[in-house]
């Protein structure tokens, strides 16, 4: 799955350094996904399953084996059949002659099952790519929260020192200093919580490739750049080739191949054998030929054909239901993405600049003695809350983008 957000998120990694406060060992999204795809046990299990299906298909494509047999009759009996003088020894070789192109039908079923398992492996890779990308975004957001929390602590500490000077100069009441200290303590608590959240997000990301502890220092992502959103019609047009729909098509091909085998089984096979019999009593030899034909094959085949037809109807119905559900899910996420993008644009264009301007005006008023500390603290809180809101909205946009990409991913050709 070519996630567009992967390239946007990692674009900054080619030209920037790690954020302040973190070691310079950045992890980029494409590296995280590659490590997950290489080490995740699910991929290994699907690959092993594919090898098993290949071997079963090769086995089923073999022709019916030859059968070698021998009979030793009229031995150790009574009277004239005592001893081995009257023995009859037969050596023969036989084989089932398959009629109705059964071998071709089995070969077609093997190919269909291989393609179906390749499809399952492809879906597993898509799922791991999706989950790793989601976890990468969570780690990037947690990292942004830590940066904002550090800045909040710096501002709160600077303001507390300033308020302490004004209180010492008897210009402000002691209550302002207590309020400033509470603000600083709250900022430090939020910073500690942000660090804990970051450690948890990094651990979840590292678990994508089986690491018990994070084996990287930072993630590098550009949450400021929001990739464009295609129109809904274009996205909806991809739904017929999504992983779920393509798997339904591959399952249909597999059932159709089983149905072909069921139809072919209606024509019974012939068991033929040819051998040589030796009569010990006369020392003569002669050819022996036999054949057998099972009865009732057509009736048994009709039940298998009916079973396959019912399975085909079920697959088609499920595919239609899945298609309707996918379209609704796509529409819901599309609407949420538009809302998230509008929120980010409104925050960046209007709300954040006004909040920054409000802080500048309030701080000048506070320094001039016209505003209380509470007014300044409220202005700073508003700015930091808006910054957090911007990060959350951008992260929500990326998370929804990953889900949309997953819903509309174009399934790779299973035959390749």
SSE run: HEHHEEHHEHHEEHH
Instruction: Work out the number of β strands.
Output: 6
> Distance between the terminal alpha carbons, to the nearest Å?
15 Å
Average pLDDT, all residues? 86
Beta-strand proportion: 5-15%
Radius of gyration: 37 Å
Biggest β-sheet: strands ordered side by side in the sheet: 2-3-5-6
> Spans of 5+ residues with little confidence (pLDDT < 50)?
10-24
Count of discrete alpha- or pi-helical segments spanning 4 or more residues: 9
* Percentage of residues in helical conformation: 55-70%
Largest sheet: 4 strands, antiparallel
General form: elongated
Structural class: alpha+beta
Can you characterise this structure?
The chain is elongated, with a radius of gyration of 37 Å. The strands form two sheets. A four-stranded antiparallel sheet has the order 2-3-5-6, with no helix packed on it. The protein has a two-stranded parallel sheet with strand order 1-4. The chain has 416 residues and is α+β, with helices and mostly antiparallel strands. β5 and β6 form a beta hairpin.
């Amino acid at each position: 799955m070519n996630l567009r957000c992967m390239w946007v998120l990692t674009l900054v990694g080619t030209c920037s350094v790690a954020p302040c406060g973190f070691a310079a060992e950045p992890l980029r999204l494409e590296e995280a996904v590659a490590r997950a795809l290489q080490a995740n046990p699910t991929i290994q299990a699907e690959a092993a399953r594919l090898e098993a299906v290949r071997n079963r298909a090769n086995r089923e494509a073999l022709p019916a084996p030859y059968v070698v047999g021998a009979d030793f009759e009229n031995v150790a009996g009574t009277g004239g059949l005592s001893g081995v003088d009257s023995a009859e020894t037969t050596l023969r070789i036989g084989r089932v002659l398959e009629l109705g192109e059964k071998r071709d039908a089995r070969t077609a079923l093997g190919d269909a099952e291989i393609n179906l398992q390749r499809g399952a492996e492809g879906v597993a890779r898509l799922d791991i790519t999706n989950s790793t990308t989601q976890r990468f975004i969570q780690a990037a957001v947690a990292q942004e929260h830590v940066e904002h929390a550090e800045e909040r602590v710096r501002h709160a500490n600077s303001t507390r020192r300033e308020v302490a000077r004004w209180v010492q100069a008897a210009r402000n009441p002691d209550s302002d200093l207590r309020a400033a200290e509470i603000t600083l303590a709250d900022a430090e608590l939020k910073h500690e919580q942000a660090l804990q959240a970051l450690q948890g997000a990094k651990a979840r990301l590292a678990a994508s490739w089986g690491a018990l502890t994070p084996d990287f220092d930072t993630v590098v992502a550009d949450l400021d750049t929001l990739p464009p959103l295609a129109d809904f019609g274009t996205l909806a047009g991809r739904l017929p080739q999504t992983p779920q729909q393509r798997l339904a098509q591959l399952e249909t091909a597999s059932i159709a191949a089983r149905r072909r085998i069921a139809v072919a089984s209606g024509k019974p096979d012939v068991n033929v054998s040819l051998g040589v019999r030796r009569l010990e009593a006369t020392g003569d030899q002669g050819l022996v030929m036999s054949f057998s034909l099972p009865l009732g094959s057509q009736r048994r085949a009709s039940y298998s054909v009916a079973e396959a037809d019912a399975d085909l109807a079920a697959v088609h119905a499920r595919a239609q239901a899945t298609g309707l559900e996918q379209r609704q899910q796509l529409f819901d996420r599309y609407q949420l993405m538009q809302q998230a993008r509008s929120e980010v644009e409104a925050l960046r264009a209007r709300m954040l600049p006004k909040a920054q301007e409000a802080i500048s005006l309030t701080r000048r008023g506070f320094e001039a003695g016209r505003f209380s500390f509470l007014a300044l603290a409220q202005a700073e809180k508003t700015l930091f809350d808006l910054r957090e809101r911007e990060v959350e909205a951008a992260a929500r946009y990326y998370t929804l983008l990953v889900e949309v990409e997953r819903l509309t991913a174009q399934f790779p050709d299973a035959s390749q």
